[in-house]
Design goal:
This protein is an alpha+beta fold. The protein is built from three helices and five strands. The strands form two sheets. Strands 1-5-4 form a three-stranded antiparallel beta sheet, sandwiched between helices. Strands 2-3 form a two-stranded antiparallel ribbon.
Length: about 140
């Protein structure tokens, strides 16, 4: 592994360890709790035993599947100076673009966008999906 690559990964690791403390201490919004509950209800009703984790952030939402920020197709760097001087890189997808990519491998059960702003210019995209059945 190149020295630059190691340095970038170590900076990201440090950043997310610090960010996790902040996120774990914060209160979850009602809409996010409702999304979690909808997923849990469906998984229990279908007797599911396994899941694939995507977009879990700090891990709090690992059991409740995929949520990302998006709304438009853009890429950007972001620096949260109180935690790190190093930028993080983000890729965002529009609703249509994200659904198109996910539909290649998953059946989309529910796709919701929340305008949560909170100083961000992107919406939160909550996706409930199931792996497509294997063709025989």
């Amino acid at each position: 592994m190149k020295t630059t690559e190691c340095s970038i990964k170590e900076n990201l690791r440090k950043y997310y360890n610090q960010e996790a403390e902040y996120r774990n201490a914060s209160t979850k919004q009602e809409w996010k709790l409702a999304e979690r509950q909808a997923f849990l209800n469906l998984a229990k009703a279908e007797g599911k035993q396994t899941l694939l984790e995507l977009g879990a952030g700090t891990g709090d939402d690992s059991l409740f599947f995929m949520g990302v920020y998006g709304g438009e197709n853009t890429e950007s760097e972001y620096v949260k100076t109180e935690l790190s001087q190093h930028p993080r890189f983000f890729s965002y997808f529009s609703k249509d673009a994200l659904q198109e990519v996910l539909a290649m491998q998953f059946e989309i059960i529910s796709f919701k966008q929340y305008d949560v702003q909170r100083g961000r210019s992107h919406e939160f995209q909550s996706v409930l999906m199931r792996k497509k059945a294997m063709a025989k």
